[in-house]
Amino acid sequence: MREFTIAAIPGDGIGSEVIEAGLQVLQTVAARDGGFKLRIETFPWGTDYYLEHGKMMADDALDTLKRFDAIYFGSAGDPRVPDHISLWGLRLAICQPLDQYANVRPARLLPGIQGPLRDVGADDLDWVIVRENSEGEYAGVGGRVHTGLPEEVGMDVAVFTRSGVERIQRFAMDLARSRPRKKLTLVTKSNAQRHGLVFWDDVFEVIRKDYPDVETDKMLVDAMTTRMVLDPRSLDTIVATNLHADVLSDLAAALTGSLGIAPTANLRPERDWPSMFEPIHGSAFDIMGQGIANPIGSFWSAVMMLDHLGEPSAASALMTAIEHVTAHGNVLPRDLGGNAPTVQVTEEVIAALEGRNA
Ligand code: ATP
Q: What are 8-59's pLDDT values in tens digits?
């Protein structure tokens, strides 16, 4: 029997609630499938760990994680510690050294979910946002000097390398090519950012010659926000920088009903190191510990993980179970207009997987 090792890092806030739910669902999928087993180890890294040890994760965390087939992550962020410390100490401290450069964020209106856009149904909003995940505005290059003085300076330098830009654009082209519409929109702000983002445009011009079967267009990021709202049908696959795609994917999640639904894969396409799967939402401290977090983003991220591990039929069984629950609409979490707690949504998805609520 095939066996996959999964490192679970629930992290902060509602991370532990949605990852625990996701692990239950994953074990059910594996048991139903019968062809593979999941060996899961959970790591206590996050803000509680930081407050005890002065660091967000163990010193040998990366070496430990490299031994796993995939990482299943909750969230990083806690009001007791500044956000940039928790983000850079945990999530980015994993993504960047493991060079998980392709952040893939599907956004789709699931059956039965009414998004905020009038007359937009499931067939009208089906996107994948590809976010550059290793450099750009989040490269970590910059500094702060003369703290507290009138001449204080704070700088974050956006770093774009030819290898970094080329590999993410090629990844997005390949993904666009694999989808029925074969359509890719490049998003930049190359009118204002005339160095790095004109560079993105130039690389795109070269790369798109290798993909004559993929229809392409280009948008400035500000105009893109209005197009996503006013003409969602015109979009399919989207590629953008680390910052721009971060912002656009929160908008995309809201347009598909809730931040609580949306999944992410931080992919290491070369597969020499593990990829990491996580819901796109943050730690949602306002609802932590209440048992009402929507676990669907973490379930959908598990679907992406199963696909990446080479278990497409298990992935599609889980996606079908999620869609069964949203389509029926009688057991929905609060952020989707229902009143079901996390455990009940989880139980309903498990029941759908086991064919008990057909
Ligand atoms: P980050 O900066 O880490 O992305 P954030 O504080 O901007 O995080 P979230 O923590 O994602 O944002 O929360 C934004 C809002 O969405 C909050 O009101 C939160 O309660 C709600 N929310 C986020 N995730 C969920 C979820 N899974 N279920 C229900 N509500 C959620």
A: 999 999 999 999 999 999 999 999 999 999 999 999 999 999 999 999 999 9
Same domain for 10 and 105, yes or no, is yes
Tell which atom from ligand 1 comes closest to the C-alpha of 287.
20
Fill in the amino acid letter for 355.
Answer: G
Count how many Cα atoms sit within 13 Å of the Cα of residue 272 in the half-sphere of its side chain: 5
Domain check: are 100 and 130 in the same one?
no
Cβ–ligand 1 distance for 297 under 6 Å, the answer yes
Which CATH number do you get for residue 269? 3.40.718.10
pLDDT in tens, 298-325: 999 999 999 999 999 999 999 999 999 9
Ligand 1 pocket, residue 77 CB under 6 Å: yes
